[in-house]
Specification:
The chain folds into two domains: 177 residues, D-Maltodextrin-Binding Protein, domain 2, CATH 3.40.190.10; 61 residues, no CATH class. It is built from ten helices and six strands.
Length: 254
């Protein structure tokens, strides 16, 4: 078991916008560039995991196909495509929120700016978060979520137990509960969390299959089946590390 973890949920990155403010949301990098330049101050990205995940999707789009970057980290390919990404971001950075002189450091801050109308867009790694935040009363009911036409990252998150955990047996019980049908079903509900299940529904007992297939549907994001064709596999972790570092050096600090 050393070094192992259990998958806890599965999600896909989506862009969230206010349809009262944005009639035709951009679906490609080129369309986003046009929109940002025509609507200065209304777009930005957080400098944490969610924002960098968008940059991974951009890098894949610039590479021409997902397969170009799948597999182990490739320094040569990164150096081929990353400069195009920094050039793109630096072109539109002056039209970002605060003229691109500062960026929100947390997604929560970006959500709040979206909620109060300061931004027309926010984003999430959880494709059901728009429904969750509307249920909480944070987002307006005019909020909607969608993937980019060129695709967005879909990945799983995991449950682990720290080496120094004083009650490992109890921790294992907790992990087992979190991957049980009961817990997976409850957290799938948009008003609870909206976190996608990692269970193979077709392998569950019939009564659980029925429950999962009839979970209260989300209203403000497309169903998972509709966006599956735009799901991109996660890249090797070195891409995330390099993008985080280089985004700071080549865009934020410029």
């Amino acid at each position: 078991w050393k070094g192992w973890s259990a998958p806890g949920g599965n999600v896909q990155w989506l862009l969230i916008y206010d349809q009262k403010q944005v009639a035709n949301p951009p679906t490609t990098m080129a369309e986003l560039e046009d929109f940002v330049k025509a609507n200065p101050g209304k777009f930005t990205l957080a400098t944490e995991f969610t924002g960098i995940t968008l940059l991974k999707s951009f890098l894949i789009a610039l590479a021409g196909s997902p397969e170009e970057l799948y597999g182990p980290f490739d320094e040569k390919k990164y150096n081929q495509y990353a400069p195009k990404l920094w050039a793109y971001l630096n072109r539109i950075k002056p039209y970002f929120w605060k003229q691109g002189q500062t960026f929100p450091s947390t997604l929560a801050a970006m959500h709040q700016m979206f909620a109060n109308g300061e931004l027309y867009f926010t984003m999430s790694n959880n494709d059901s978060e728009v429904d969750n935040k509307i249920a909480q009363g944070l987002f307006p009911k005019s909020a909607r979520a969608y993937p980019l036409r060129t695709g967005t990252i879909q990945n799983s998150h995991y449950l682990g137990i720290v080496r120094q955990a004083p009650h490992k047996a109890a921790a294992l019980v907790a992990v087992n509960f979190m991957i049980s049908p009961e817990a997976q079903y409850e957290k799938l509900k948009p008003d609870i969390w909206g976190d996608g299940t990692v269970l193979a529904i077709e392998k569950l007992p019939p009564q659980w299959q029925d429950k999962f297939r009839n979970v209260p549907n989300r209203k403000y994001a497309p169903k998972r089946a509709r966006i599956q064709n735009q799901a991109l596999m996660e890249l090797a972790p070195e891409y995330m590390i390099r993008l985080y570092k280089d985004f700071r050096q080549k865009v934020i600090e410029q």
